[in-house]
Design goal:
The chain is of the alpha+beta class and 136 residues long. Helix content is 35%, strand content 22%. It is built from four helices and five strands, in the order H-E-E-E-H-E-E-H-H.
Length: 136
């Protein structure tokens, strides 16, 4: 995926100028880019590589639940399966500033144990979200 294609799509969708597009190397499944807008606000663009995954309805439902339950998350700004810009669609989210958990452990900012304690506390809150007709 070319940075020029990302620039063109985001400028049309957000109706604002893009200053910089940087591919994020750790995108496991989707192509991921950090895009800086003219107001200096960074956003993340995930370009889907599969027409059926992830399910965009699920992504929007999850975001709604996280908001309702006051769980911290990057807000979805736009999510589309429309192939106008990208064959399998894309999602545009807020950029979350900070260091990845892996990097924080490696550089000693947080211990492995403390990271996993914080992660477990967050996942406990996520797992408290009720899903109708799930399980039993």
């Amino acid at each position: 995926m070319k940075e020029e294609t990302v620039t063109k799509a985001i400028e049309q969708v957000l109706k604002t100028k893009v200053i910089e597009v940087v591919k994020i190397a750790k995108g496991e499944f989707n192509q991921v880019f950090k895009v800086t807008l003219e107001n200096k606000i960074p956003v993340i663009v995930r370009i889907f590589r599969n027409k059926n995954f992830p399910n965009t309805d699920d992504l929007l439902w999850i975001e709604k639940q996280f908001t309702l339950h006051n769980l911290p998350h990057a807000k979805i700004l736009c999510c589309s399966r429309d192939n106008l810009y990208f064959t399998d669609g894309f999602m545009l989210t807020e950029f979350v500033h900070g260091t990845s958990g892996d990097d924080a452990i490696k550089n000693g900012t947080v211990t492995f144990e403390l990271f996993h304690q914080k992660l477990a506390a967050l996942l406990e809150k996520v797992h408290e979200i009720k899903i109708d007709n799930y399980g039993f």
